[in-house]
């Protein structure tokens, strides 16, 4: 009994010790640390807003791309199914695609028909011109100059010619003209000298350049500028001639290669009236009418006014013909209808035929029309006059020239409007 009681006492003491030990052992507590709250500042808010906007933009782009891809797949499936069922795309879509595929990178410019210098037109014969006994010189044998010199020679005038490329002088020498080596040589041997070159800068070089006109200009000489120039350039040339005692006349010409060869140009002159009178027999050979418009600069201004009208009109014609072609209309039908309307003038009809034929043989170079539009815009700027139609038209011609059609006929602006 004592042993059992002793063992029980030992057990109870042991259990008490274990309880005490267990109660003295520290318990492990799970402590959740408090996170620091982010302090919002205006800069941080703006940064977060930008991030959110950027992420939303990316998501939108992805959705659009997916939608676009789904639509294109659906379109391909519908087209394939329609082809399998025997249907074909619309004629308008075919026309649009073929138009883009047929766009010419560059069109070869047809050679200008050779000029028969010895032939005399019936128009010139009917004029019965009595030629002046003065000696005349001519600088520049381009498209316009060649036709003018031909009629001067065939009407009995004495003409001394010069051209930058001397080979062009050969045909005229064969029918009675004389050839000079430099522009100053022409002035020295002539009473009155005509100049018909490409642009105002070349016209200035002809006068002020090496072996130029001024070197031989004296009080008994006359100089007639037929190049398409602006009033300021004409005034500069006039002052230079007057300082040497010479007479100056600007004689701007309206017409193209055909009118120059047939002697049916319109001549707009201003400057020295006595020089205008001395040139009357020459003007009769060149054109069907000549006008004296007063002081230097008036003829240049009048010419630019007419050229602006012509340039805008031809651009409108080109766009109309392009619209007819894209709409599936026959351009020959358009021409036939126009011939019966108030639009039936030589300029419109001739250029419409050129568009239909598509060769664009040069009668009036596109680059020269663009030059006149540019000069017309400059004149408008000087007068503070807005010319929005002219400005837009000028851009069309500039683009056509950049595409390589500067030396083609002006009707080739159609290429720019069609494609």
UniProtKB/TrEMBL annotation:
Residues 1-93 are annotated as: Disordered. Residues 29-40 have a biased composition (Basic residues). Residues 64-80 have a biased composition (Basic and acidic residues). InterPro entries: 6-PGluconate_DH-like_C_sf, 6PGD_dom2, 6PGDH_NADP-bd, HIBADH-like_NADP-bd, HIBADH-related_NP60_sf, NAD(P)-bd_dom_sf. One of its GO terms (molecular function) is NAD binding. It comes from Hirondellea gigas. GO terms for biological process: transcription elongation-coupled chromatin remodeling. Belongs to the HIBADH-related family. NP60 subfamily. The lineage of its organism: Eukaryota, Metazoa, Ecdysozoa, Arthropoda, Crustacea. Residues 297-414 form the 3-hydroxyisobutyrate dehydrogenase-like NAD-binding domain. Transmembrane segments: none annotated. Residues 135-294 form the 6-phosphogluconate dehydrogenase NADP-binding domain. This is Cytokine-like nuclear factor N-PAC. Residues 9-28, 81-93 have a biased composition (Low complexity). Gene3D superfamilies: N-(1-d-carboxylethyl)-l-norvaline Dehydrogenase, domain 2, NAD(P)-binding Rossmann-like Domain. GO terms for cellular component: chromatin. Pfam families: NAD_binding_11, NAD_binding_2.
């Amino acid at each position: 009994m004592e042993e059992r009681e002793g063992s029980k006492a030992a057990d109870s003491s042991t259990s008490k010790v274990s309880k005490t030990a267990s109660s003295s052992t520290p318990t492990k507590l799970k402590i959740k640390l408090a996170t620091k709250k982010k302090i919002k500042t205006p800069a941080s808010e703006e940064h977060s807003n930008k991030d959110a906007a950027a992420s939303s933009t990316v998501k939108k782009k992805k959705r659009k791309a997916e939608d676009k891809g789904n639509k294109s797949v659906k379109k391909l499936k519908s087209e394939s199914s329609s082809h399998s069922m025997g249907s074909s795309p619309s004629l308008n879509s075919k026309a649009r695609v073929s138009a883009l595929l047929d766009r010419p990178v560059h069109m070869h410019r047809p050679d200008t028909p050779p000029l028969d210098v010895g032939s005399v037109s019936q128009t010139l014969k009917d004029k019965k011109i009595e030629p002046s006994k003065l000696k005349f010189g001519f600088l520049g044998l381009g498209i316009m100059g060649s036709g003018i010199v031909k009629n001067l020679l065939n009407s009995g005038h004495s003409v001394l010619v010069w051209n930058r490329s001397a080979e062009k002088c050969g045909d005229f020498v064969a029918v009675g003209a004389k050839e000079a080596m430099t522009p100053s040589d022409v002035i020295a041997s002539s009473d009155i000298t005509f100049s018909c070159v490409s642009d105002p800068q070349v016209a200035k070089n002809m006068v002020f350049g090496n072996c130029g006109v001024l070197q031989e200009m004296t009080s008994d000489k006359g100089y007639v500028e037929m190049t398409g120039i602006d009033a300021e350039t004409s005034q500069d040339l006039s002052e230079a001639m007057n300082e040497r005692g010479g007479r100056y006349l600007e004689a701007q010409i309206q017409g193209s290669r055909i009118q120059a060869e047939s002697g049916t140009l319109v001549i707009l002159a201003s400057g020295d009236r006595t020089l205008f009178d001395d040139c009357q027999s020459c003007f009769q050979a060149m054109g069907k009418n000549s006008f004296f418009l007063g002081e230097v600069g008036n003829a240049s201004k009048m010419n630019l006014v007419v050229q602006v009208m012509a340039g805008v009109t031809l651009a409108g014609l080109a766009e109309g013909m392009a619209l007819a072609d894209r709409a599936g209309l026959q351009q020959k039908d358009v021409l036939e209808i126009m011939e019966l309307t108030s639009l039936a003038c030589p300029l419109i009809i001739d250029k419409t035929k050129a568009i239909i034929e598509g060769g664009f043989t040069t009668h009036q170079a596109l680059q020269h029309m663009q030059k006149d539009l540019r000069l017309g815009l400059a004149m408008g700027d000087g007068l503070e006059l807005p010319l929005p139609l002219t400005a837009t038209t000028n851009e069309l011609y500039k683009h056509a020239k950049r595409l390589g059609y500067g030396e083609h006929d002006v009707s080739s602006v159609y290429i720019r409007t069609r494609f």
